[in-house]
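User: Sequence in, structure out. Go.
Assistant: Echoing your sequence, followed by the structure tokens.
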Amino acid sequence: MRQIVASAQSVRLLCPLAPVSWTSPVSWTSPHLICSILPTWTHKAPYSTFEIPAWLCWNGLTSAPGFMEITSEWALLGYRLSTCLGSSQRRFHGGVVFVLGLLSVFLLAGLIGLGVHYHSVRSSAEDISVIIDNLTERLQDSNNKFCSVSEERDLLLANLTEITKEMEKLQSLSVHNSVIMNNLTERLQDSNNNLSSMSEERDLLLANLTEITKEMEKLQSLSVHNSVIINNLTERLQDSNNKLSSMSEERDLLLANLTEITKEMEKLQSLPVQKKTCPAGWRMFRRSCYLRSNESGSWFTGRQDCREKGADLVVIDSTEEQTFLSTFTEVATWIGLTDRDEEGTWKWIDGTPLTSRYWRSNQPDNGNGDPQWGEEDCVHIRAEGKTGDNWNDLSCDASLRWICEKNAGL
């Protein structure tokens, strides 16, 4: 931007960033002003001052004070200034210097633009290099994973081939195995049936042998009825011998025991008839003595008391004895039956299994799982029940009376 200060005597041209000194005459033309001046050049930052006689300016300038804004182009300004020089050589040199100055400015601006562009391109190149490195690493990782997956696939294919072969072999064996399994199942079922039958027969024989043994012990103290009992035992022994003939080693052992019992029976037949008696306070039924306790206690306490008296808790082995004991006691009393060794397997205290049962309805129930009753592993006779079904299972720690039993003495 340039400004001209006009007065009656002169026109002052204000040029920013003008040279320090310039003594060449200037001829300058603008759309509104043509001046031929010989400037008196002095440097006053930031402007240089030209003194222009007012009578040398025309085309719109008057002697009144005022300002004019000049917007002409730099190249045209240089050319027109050069035409105002008094000397052609000075005009030429001034124009060249001015144009060279403009070219230097444009060149500097171009160099600055190229530097900025180069810096931008270099930064972009570095970013592209980093991106290429990242993509290369990711591509390498993908290749490694692909190789690993390929190896796993080959291994799985090999395993699948082996499994397919094994399946074909198993399918060929399935029919044969099915026939074998059916045969084995049938043979196992037959064996189970035979074993069950033999087990029942063995238990029956054991029960018979137990009863016979008890009878033998009682026969040692028999009186008048020895001959009748011996005949009954002989018949039962004969039946046992017939059944034992079909058994294995266990049955042979039972037969040997029965043979010894038979010999004892023959000896008893020659014994004189003797009268049996019971201690004071004991009650006799057939060939046994019975005592009902006066105090109460647990099942274990009752058994210990009986043993101290040379007896044990009563063992019921006949309906007649069950009827006798039901009328003998008027309160609940312990008897010698328990399943403490194995839940649900009831045995007498002498080790014989339970054969005759006189349970109340819905008994035994082991307390129906009610914690307040606990494990009911011992048996007692209920006084209010019928003579045929008055047994009940109860906790062995309950406090009841008990009945002791022992053989009658001579």
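User: And one key feature?
Assistant: Helices lie at 74-83, 88-219, 226-244, 249-269, 299-308, 319-328.
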